[in-house]
Amino acid sequence: MQKVKVGFVPSHRVPFGEDWAADMRARCLKEMGKVPGLEVVAPDASMTQGGVVRNLQDARKVVKLFKDREVTGVVVGGMTFGHEISAVGGVLANLPRGIPVLHFATKGKVAEDGSRPSDSWCGQFMITSAMKRREIVFEHIPTCFPEEPVFAESVARFARACAAHQAFRGARIGQIGTRPEEFESVWWDESSLQRDFNQTVVPVDLSDVFMHLDAVEPGDADVRRVAKEIKEGIEIPSEAEEAVTTLARMEVTLLRLAQEKELDALAVNCWEQVQKRYGICVCSTLGRLGDQGIPCACEVDVYGAATLLAARGAGLGETAPHFIDWTELHPEKENIWLAWHCGNAPRSTCDAGCRPCLLEHSILPLHPSWGTLEFVEKPGPASFCRLVEYDGWFTMFIGSGEVVDTPPKVRGSYGWVKVADAIDWEQKMVDHGIIHHGVMIHDPQVADALESFCKFNGIEVVRGA
Known about the structure:
Elements: E1 4-11, H1 18-32, E2 38-41, H2 56-69, E3 73-78, H3 84-91, E4 101-106, H4 120-133, E5 138-144, H5 149-168, E6 172-176, H6 190-197, E7 200-204, H7 206-215, H8 221-231, H9 241-260, E8 265-268, H10 273-278, H11 283-291, E9 296-298, H12 302-314, E10 322-329, E11 336-341, E12 357-360, E13 370-376, E14 380-390, E15 393-404, E16 413-418, H13 422-431, E17 437-441, H14 446-456, E18 460-463
Parallel strand pairs: 1-2, 1-3, 3-4, 4-5, 6-7, 6-8, 8-9, 13-16, 15-18
Antiparallel strand pairs: 10-11, 10-17, 11-16, 12-13, 14-15, 14-17, 15-16
Helix pairs in contact: 2-3, 3-4, 5-12, 5-14, 8-9, 9-11
């Protein structure tokens, strides 16, 4: 599981209750420590009095701590009334612009003598207004005790959003070949990716890929290992044996290129040149790379590759996302549609009761074309998303649904998906220019996390019903 390193600012204002602040800090850390994948970086009593942040001197120490530990997000919590000068002007204002921020205030109490040790509900409005003045984008947890479910749920969502932010910003996306001539929809604007997200598109000509592949011998140790892995647990026609070796050589080639050029994701030209030259389809190769942590979009869809990166990050690297077409409404059942592609799904998404088959492409009229790994995906809740851009404005469609076990069977790698209102999805996707490619990930928590991720990155969110 990917670890997310988040800084914690336990904010306290003198003369509110010192013991209350220290106790509330400890309770917050205890609950945050239960969140999967989260590593909390916070001042302790050796750094600041009581381990809280009460003045600018404390803030300077915390800024250094956060920078030294390279935190990817910051949680600001009012342990008592809180101190906006140190928490916001001292800490947040001196961290990299755009770092994700989560804010909350803890509940207080009234003592028997009528005194109050906290007043954090009041103080939070000073902290949030200080962030608003500085145009710091933040998420907010409704005021609560740290033991209340909303606290851990919100922190977990924030951690996933930070992971998506870390995976997405500054990414290097390999453009492997040119986009299909008749797929205008997969265009992209490099300058917008650079300006808004510090992403780099690294072009790799298909001729360079072929040159590298031709230099990889069938007897290469990595090729033999990959070929063995490809064959394990799947059905392969005898006439596809030679193609398996070529598929292994292609996988080794793309892996080595990704390592050499430090690529985080690939957008790959997958037809028709590779079929004509080698008699294979790279569909199953892309799925295998996805299971190895290199998300791959088909048909040189660069924005699709960026969407995959965000989804994989929001899943804490635990679940490989699947690059799909929003393909077809179910012929008989309401609000069920087909999440499908030719045979590129990561094998980790295969239903336990299904044995994958390595076959020729079901659509392309080229033979041989071995390399689609066909199976039905495992049932269960899933998240869906797609990033698009028009005139420099980025929008992400996000939806939640459930992969269901229902006929009919179709060719390719696929899952029938039940949602609350498929026509609501359709209308919103049409209205916002969502293209035919999308991303599915078998993790229901990703959808909410991506909504927070979009907020931190200035991306408009469109949520399907």
